[in-house]
Amino acid sequence: MTQLRWLVTGCSSGLGKAFVRTILARGDKVVATARGDISRLSSLKEAGAETVSLDVTAPLSEIKVVAASILESGPIDVLVNNAGYIEAGMSEEVSYDQYMAQFETNFFGVIRTTQAILPHFREKKSGFVVFIGSSGGIAGEPGAGPYCATKFALKGWYDCFKKETAHLGIKSMLFELGFFRTKIDDPNNYKFRSESIDEYKEINKLVKQFLQSMDGNQPGDPQKGVEVMIDFVREEGVAKGRVLPERLPLGSDCLSTLRKRAVEDLNTCNEWEDVIRGTDYK
């Protein structure tokens, strides 16, 4: 396969940083981005990556300017929409502004960045867009309302996007990740909103304890996950010669979540079919 040039968002730590180092190790080029001061990307630049400041929450017009600057030095073959974080808290206690902040990064940021690169992909009639979903987009969990809402929204948007762009030579893939051992669950990275509604105090306590227990103990290996995702884009390794699914869960915990939801949905279809069909015109 020919050498590819990747654009990856959210590379200051975690999965994004693993993506960049692995892309370089596989012999491809990569533009690593992060919001604000790109000195945080200095180690990736030393490793051979191009580094650019890109804030996915900026207006589309500003992101287009950054994209145009990146494209001046060569075409982009793969966009990885990786930037994201977690807003946690009870659904009633999280404010509208906090919900919007979560959507601005995890959902609208993905849309804006993708829209900025799509004209380039359409012009060259090729390109691959990677979307980073979550088990939180398969089933909700207490205290994860804002985050799960963005991942459910992303899944719905992706299903439409894939059908709309396939005839243009553009490929895309949604990877739904379980808990991977990155810093996303570090208390300094997620934002937990807890108010003083008595009825939620106990469940708030349990959610905090769960997040603390998961930090550093997540079952997913970021390096292994990134290797699989790159295999899918390059159609090699575990993806070579196989018909690729429209979405792929990664991590044993995400597989369990998906399987449980699939069984529940199938049971609903089977047990309630008469009622479901009974609402049609006769």
Q: What does this 3D model show about the protein?
A:
- By secondary structure, this protein is of the alpha/beta class.
- It has helices spanning 14-25, 42-47, 60-72, 96-124, 145-165, 201-214, 222-234, 252-271, 273-277; strands at 5-8, 29-34, 50-53, 78-81, 87-89, 127-134, 170-177, 191-193, 247-250.
- The protein has one domain (5-253): Rossmann fold (3-Layer(aba) Sandwich).
- Strand 2 (29-34), helix 2 and strand 3 (50-53) form a beta-alpha-beta unit.
- Helix 1 crosses helix 7 (222-234), helix 3 packs parallel to helix 4 (96-124) and helix 4 packs parallel to helix 5 (145-165).
- The model has no long low-confidence stretch (mean pLDDT 93).
SS strand fraction: 15-25%
CATH topological fold name: Rossmann fold
Number of helices: 9
CATH class identity:
Alpha Beta
What is the terminal separation in angstroms?
A: 55 Å
Structural class: alpha/beta
The CATH homology group name = NAD(P)-binding Rossmann-like Domain
Please summarize the sheet with the most strands: 7 strands, parallel
- C-alpha-based Rg, rounded: 20 Å
Query: Widest sheet: strand order?
Result: 3-2-1-4-6-7-9
Stretches where pLDDT is under 50 for at least 5 consecutive residues are none
Overall outline? globular
Residue-averaged pLDDT: 93
Helix content: 40-55%
Order of helices and strands: EHEHEHEEHEHEEHHEHH
How many domains, as an integer?
1
What is the second-level CATH architecture?
A: 3-Layer(aba) Sandwich
Number of strands: 9
Keywords:
282 residues; 9 strands; NAD(P)-bd_dom_sf; 9 helices; alpha/beta; 7-stranded parallel beta sheet; NAD(P)-binding protein; two-stranded parallel ribbon; globular; SDR_oxidoreductase; oxidoreductase; Rossmann fold
